[in-house]
Amino acid sequence: MEAYIFNLLNLIAIYGILAVSLNFIIGYAGIYSLAHAVFFGLGAYTSAWVGLNVTPSTFVTIPAAMLVAAIVSLVLALPALRVRGEYFVAASLGLQVIAVTVFSEWKSFTGGIGGVLAIPPVNLFGAEIYQPREFAIVSVIALLIVIAITLALVRSSFGRNLRAIRDSESAAASFGKNVPLIKTVAVVISAALAAVAGALYASFISFINVESFMLDTSVLLMAMVIIGGTGTFLGPLVGAALLLILPSAISYLSFLPQTEIGALQQIIYGLGMTLLMIFRPGGIVGRRSGT
User: Fold this and answer.
1) 56, 156, 174, 178 - which has most CB atoms within 10 Å?
2) Is 262's pLDDT higher than 80?
């Protein structure tokens, strides 16, 4: 039971990083993306490749993962961020579809459908960390660092520019702000932070394949942010914890057939988001004034 709890804590921390990094562009820049699982996957595959072929040191695998995700994010950001709203959502959806195909077919790098096996665990100063209890310390520290980075950015002049763009792009541009550049930088930062979660996930699970980085993962991450509350610091964490703990709780309902649990989870997600949009559109935490 203890191992199960720590495994769940590790997943909450990893998905918390993803939700916080996605909230950085959704909540503070008003950029809705359906491609966040792409950068999650890029971080995982890059970290796994570096760990297996170069060095297992986490001080190398995570920066490498962040760099690759940041570079690829420019493929989405540069052409797409000159458009607004639903057009960017469509562009991000296109990238997600393309990425799934690449992840499935680029077998020399991703292992294809079979995935990548025997990924090295987190390696800090030569010490391997693979026990769930010890790994939880690493994952929670990584989450706190990501939160600290986003907090510093949001409270900086860059964060104020993001909120100005979120509220009105035309008004921000009229004050001399380079809107495409600011939005591009925000997407690059968000992608790089998502890659941190990917690297941790690969080391924690020790096996990855394309099924973890498909469209339903991007939708789940967006649901975490929206349900928890966009534009808040606690919201994404609350959403991540809720949407990970809930399936675990449902799985313990002995009167439900195991084959029906997945469908029930989807129904609960959809119903929860619908009710929130009606009765609490700001999410569980809700957007605080001044953030």
Assistant:
1) 56
2) no
